Amino acid sequence: MKIIAAMSGGVDSAVAAARAVEAGHEVIGVHLALASNPQKYRSGARGCCTIEDSHDARRAADVIGIPFYIWDMAEEFHAGVVEDFMSEYAAGRTPNPCLRCNEKIKFAAVLDRARAMGFDGVVTGHYARTEIGPTGKTLHRAIDISKDQSYVLSVLTVEQINGAIFPLGDTTKVDIRKEAESRGLAVAQKPDSHDICFVPSGDNAGWLRERLGSEVGPIVDQEGTKIGEHKGAYTYTIGQRKGLGITVPTSDGSPRFVLKIEPVTNTVVVGAREELAVTSMVGERPVWCGPAVTTAPTQGLVQVRAHGQALSCTYFLRDGFLVAELDLPLLGLATGQAMVIYDGDRVVGSATICETA
User: Considering 21, 226, 304, 321, which has the largest number of Cβ atoms within 10 A of its Cβ?
Assistant: First the structure.
């Protein structure tokens, strides 16, 4: 096949590209420029869209022996990821920009452009697997559970999964680094990227205040009594305990947690930890990574954080919304997060949480 290798400048994408070449594919390496001015995004080895990363990707492509190009995706990234991040927080929700990047950039804009240019698909260094079964090509967890990235890939449609290649899903990260060294790739021991790539300081709250303002508002208890002030309700998230700025302590000294964010009134509601417990969640805009979910209740697993534990649940479709009822209560669930349904290690689909109970 003729495929594009999305090369971030890290060890995983470099090894993925090398494996694609060894598998007999015609491969072209592409690095995505996600900002017109990369210096305004993260610098150093913590991100995945810096000048240093583009240089590392080019050197890896040279070692592998494949053509290399840089694609300018700055406008698409800002519109589909950065602006979505700001608008979700402004609405009192907690988004995951890595999901939006996979959905809007790596497996929508890139795959569409690749196919328009006559390529068959895109290979990436994500830790996930695909399998061919009776219902077609499906998405599955990686063998290395500690590095599994199927959660952030759960926004892919069946068509996008058909055009995606994940060569690393059957290998541990330790072995990937060893393989990179044996291939002579300089990125073999490069640290993994983390945090949000477009937040230069790593201070999400400060970054949001610069763009959305820092309007002072009340922090209230569940009875509506003011017990503190904040500098922007959007800088808080459900379940948060630290940095609340509460001036009135509880009678027994127990901590308070964020229970609700009300952006219209710029109010943060706090209360006891047990008030965070939820037993069901509803998700909007569901995406299926294989056969669609029906209205019939089905036993499975649901995961609500990228590196969180998958919890036993019953899931079904109701009026176009994905519903998951938990076998055991979950604490600190925020709207805006993704709920990802699994059948064993197979990704069933995902939706954005819009309601909890």
Answer: 304
Regarding whether 108 and 36 lie in a shared domain, the answer is yes
Average pLDDT, the chain: 92
Q: Mind listing the pLDDT tens digit for each residue in 298-317?
A: 999 999 999 889 999 999 99
Asked about 101 being catalytic, the answer comes back as yes
Whether residue 328 lies inside any domain: the answer is: no
Catalytic one of 48, 49, 98, 101 = 101
Give the active site residue among 197, 289, 313, 354: 197
Residue 115, pLDDT score: 92
Phi-psi region of 238 (alpha: psi -120 to 50; beta: other; left: phi over 0): beta
* Angle of CA points 252, 253, 258, to nearest 5°: 110
- Both tokens of residue 82? 């950065």
Whether 197 sits among the annotated catalytic residues: the reply is: yes
Higher per-residue pLDDT: 202 or 203: 203
Identify the domain containing residue 118 by its residue range: 1-124+166-181
17 in helix, strand or coil? helix
Q: Answer yes or no: do 116 and 217 share one domain.
A: no
